[in-house]
Amino acid sequence: MQVLIIADDLTGALDSAVAFTGGGRRVVVARDVARIPEALERAPDVLSVNLACREGDADTARARMRACVDQLDLGAVPVVIKKVDSRLKGHVGVECAALADAMAPERIVALPAVPQMGRVQKDGAVTGDGIDAPIALSPLFDRPVTIPEATTDAQMDACVAAEGRVLWVGARGLCFALARRLFGPLDPVDWQLAHPLVFAVGSRDPITVEQVEALRGALPIAALPDGRAAGDVPASGTTVFQMTESGAGRTPEDAARDFADAVADHLRATRPDGLLATGGETAQAILDRLGIGVLDVRAELAPGLPVSEARVTWGTLQIATKSGGFGDPDLLRRIARGD
Prior knowledge:
Blueprint: E1 3-7, H1 10-17, E2 27-30, H2 36-40, E3 46-50, H3 58-69, E4 79-83, H4 92-103, E5 107-111, E6 119-122, E7 125-128, E8 135-136, H5 153-159, E9 166-170, H6 172-183, E10 197-201, H7 206-215, E11 221-225, E12 239-244, H8 252-270, E13 274-278, H9 280-290, E14 294-302, E15 305-312, E16 315-322, H10 331-337
Parallel strand pairs: 1-3, 1-4, 2-3, 4-9, 5-9, 10-12, 10-13, 11-12, 13-16
Antiparallel strand pairs: 2-14, 6-7, 7-8, 14-15, 15-16
Family: Belongs to the four-carbon acid sugar kinase family.
Pfam families: NBD_C, SBD_N
Keywords: ATP-binding, Carbohydrate metabolism, Kinase, Nucleotide-binding, Transferase
């Protein structure tokens, strides 16, 4: 294994791992800590592990990190990355402390900037698009940490030239910079998502809602108020399932459970070639229903939209994941057209 990535949610685990695809490398994501042995059986060049702890408490995050590193020989992996949200959501400090205790790096370098997304690092803080006020980095850590200036990809590349045993802390911008350092210029992998395709839109982010509206009239859209089907669902072909609100006051947990059940039942019944899920929790729940624990990451359809493959009862399913607040209004329509 050349690279180990430890993330706190599924979309992050995939979005960071995709940086290392190409060149014949096997890039594998373990959907949770319990799937690490299954992932290691595939002899990955790059392993990304999802701790699935962003929405939980700090004690859970710490325990899952320790359970993760106990299964891995950190000293044998040249590059170790703690993948964090570029807006520093979750339990960054707790997870980094537990990983640093196990790894004993010579130094920790924090680089959560993603210049491609307009999120940069200046004066010890992350700022830019989608960030209301600069987020200071040093208060998140319980030990010394290096926090470089990083406002461009060129600066990111200069930052990752450091030698020695480093614990890298960052987001997709850091992963792509490290991939360029390790493997040279990255050639995009040409990939189109297989059809028929099921869109599972669990995110209610306004950006995603606008993207679904752009599909209306071109594809059948099945609304699932609070996760429950409210009408007829097409028996085959490319279909959009959209979580909506019913006003009935159901808990988000109950709605998410029913939504995942409905989508998984449809997938098993219609046996499509592709799935696109918006929102990490949506993807986690559907993959859980399908019994998918390990994903082989193949390519990036668009920035922030990785596509993976997994074995299912009817063959191979291509799975694309997208965070809720990402992409231009026409993104889903282009994917539906195969552009």
